Amino acid sequence: MNVCEAVAKRINNLLKEKHMKLYGLEKNSTIAHGTMMRIVHGKNKNITLKIVMQIAAGFQMTLLEFLNDEIFVNNDIEIY
Length: 80
Known about the structure:
It is built from six helices and no strands. It is mainly α.
């Protein structure tokens, strides 16, 4: 799994956990629908720290809360 796929998985898990719709996350994070769709479907190949911070804010979380998940602790994440 690469970083972009890990972010997509974390988003999908949080949407279920918080009973949120993607539209609500897009609105709260100010990320355009097309961009968010590419992110959650693993089509985005380059996710910046700014985007991750916006996503975290969309969930009303800090960046550290968003990243504090087993998905990101996994040593099998490709960073290239």
